[in-house]
TrEMBL record:
Residues 33-126 form the Cytidyltransferase-like domain. Keywords: Nucleotidyltransferase, Transferase. Pfam families: CTP_transf_like (PF01467). The keyword Transmembrane does not apply. The lineage of its organism: Bacteria, Pseudomonadati, Pseudomonadota, Betaproteobacteria, Burkholderiales. Gene3D superfamilies: HUPs (3.40.50.620). It comes from the Bacteria. This is Cytidyltransferase-like domain-containing protein. PANTHER family: BIFUNCTIONAL PROTEIN HLDE (PTHR43793:SF2), FAD SYNTHASE (PTHR43793). SUPFAM superfamilies: Nucleotidylyl transferase (SSF52374). It comes from Limnobacter litoralis.
Length: 165
């Protein structure tokens, strides 16, 4: 007899931008915030996310909405995975506490809503150039740039796949 599957528990970690402030306030602190496209999740991503999570007790990840990814100029066929699919994969990670999205060109509104204790970006973003760093520092938080340990990128992966065709 076939039974209907249960709703995956990780879906409870996903929220809308309108829910972000309330959901973030419920998290155990210190709260860490990061953002990105996270299109084809790879070892570089999961290493970075785990290291970001270690900067506090809870990790919020804000993904670029599909329209936002298009504006980044990563290619006509990007994102490969939809916003909802990218959010679900991230939410399934143990180190991630909450996932939302932003449709603007920068995550500043999401950062202001979440009011994290720690803002984290990858090593290609020096603290002085991080969107939201001055705001997080203004309420006593800190901004951290984590050096990449595994030189991987979705763009490089897609180039490799396309070259194999």
């Amino acid at each position: 007899m076939a039974t209907q599957g249960k709703t995956p528990k990780f879906e409870a970690k996903m929220c809308t931008p309108e829910q972000l402030a309330g959901r973030a306030a419920e998290l155990e602190g210190p709260v860490v915030f990061t953002n990105g496209v996270f299109d084809l999740l790879h070892r570089g991503h999961v290493t970075y996310l785990d290291q970001a999570a270690q900067e506090g007790k809870s990790l919020i990840v804000a993904v670029n909405a599909d329209a936002s990814v298009k504006r980044l100029g990563k290619g006509d066929d990007r994102p490969i995975n939809t916003q909802l699919d990218r959010m679900a994969v991230l939410a399934a990670l143990e180190c991630v506490s909450l996932v939302t999205w932003f449709d603007e060109d920068t995550p500043l509104n999401a950062i202001l809503a979440a009011r994290p204790d720690v803002l984290v970006k990858g090593g290609d973003w020096p603290v002085e150039k991080m969107v939201g760093a001055p705001e997080v520092q203004s309420w006593g938080g800190r901004a951290v740039s984590i050096q990449f340990e595994h030189e991987r990128s979705t763009t490089a992966t897609l180039n490799k796949i396309r070259g194999a065709q």
